[in-house]
Amino acid sequence: MSEIQLNDMPKLGFGLMRLPEKNGVIDHEHVCRMVDLYMNAGMNYFDTAYVYHGGKSEVAAREAIVKRYPRDSFMLATKLPAWEMRSAADADRLFNEQLERAGVDYFDFYLLHSAEDGSNYDTYVKYDCFDWGMQRKAEGKIRHFGFSYHGSPELLIEILDEHPEVEFVQIQLNYLDRTNPVVRSQELYEILKDRNIPIIVMEPVRGGMLANMDPALEKKFKDRQPGKSVASWALRFVGSLPGVMTILSGMSNTEQMEDNINTFKDFEPLADDEFKIIDEVTQDILSMPQIGCTACRYCCDGCPENIVIPDVFRTINTLRRYPDDWRSKNFYSGLIQRSGKASDCIGCGQCERVCPQHLPVIDLMKEAAGILDRA
Q1: Residue that terminates a domain, selected from 254, 286, 318
Q2: Is residue 155 assigned to a domain?
Q3: What's the pLDDT score for residue 322?
Q4: pTM for the full model?
Q5: Which domain holds residue 100?
Q6: Who wins on pLDDT, 23 or 140?
Q7: Is the pLDDT assigned to residue 252 strictly greater than 70?
Q8: Could you write out the DSSP letters of every residue in 194-221?
Q9: CA 340 and chain centroid, separation
Q10: Is 298 among the domain residues?
Q11: How far is Cα 84 from Cα 28, in angstroms, rounded to an integer?
């Protein structure tokens, strides 16, 4: 990737994984308003994937971005899903379907989705997907080739040693996951920084967890920066790190968009005392037992009982902090009117196989059932 390209990258990327919905479908008009705000702020990097919004995110990108803006005015990224592949030929089949969905002739950035220890990485190796990606790049159908990553530092080193052609890597990185023994984001970050490989960050606000927190923790931020949102601290933390090229935020409404634009419009790196506040808040959060779900919703599409697992976990996390919060129980009561209950879980393990956070979902659902579904 050229230095000019790196300099042209906006610090804030628009992740199209959590788009606003109305009556169960993507709210096109709302998405268009968000896109316009983002583009008018001089930012232009959009990230989608084959599986986001049940396959509708790439189509939303076509309708809200591709049809409404000149092709050279924005950058569009999407990803190849290993779990949809049964043969080498599937790479071209899926890629051509993505081009059609998005209404483009090429993708500016293309990623192998969630290359990690186990089946996903094994699939990419089995079907020579790294070579395939470079062939598509040579044809001009991909401008820049890389992968998103949820695996171990050991495998990351192996991949980078075997594939020096990789131009960038996308990792989960936020202040809470620095010492997470499963995510190990600080180790991943250091590996990429030491090799001068541009980093795209996902989950900087950890699925919204670092945007809404205990009032006592929020006060620590507000005392130092009264006019800044809690979410802005998480974004500024990641944006202050050397080697970070773009930070993806899966924004769901115009308010989040406006707040994030304000954070990056006149970006201020964290001061030393602000890093200390971040460290204090991190320790306070880690002292509270929380389910580390980022609400990516990969677990939802294949659930045979139609359980909206992230929303169940959201309820449990709130109750762990606020045991007497009646609103959480009301939220769950409404949730199970349109989806399965926690106690409906049959323990098939589909959710655990696709969870980027490697959560013990089956055991957690048993805990949730005992709290939420007892008579």
Answers
A1: 286
A2: yes
A3: 61
A4: 0.82
A5: 3-286
A6: 140
A7: yes
A8: HTT--EEEE-TTGGGTTTS--HHHHHHH
A9: 25
A10: no
A11: 27
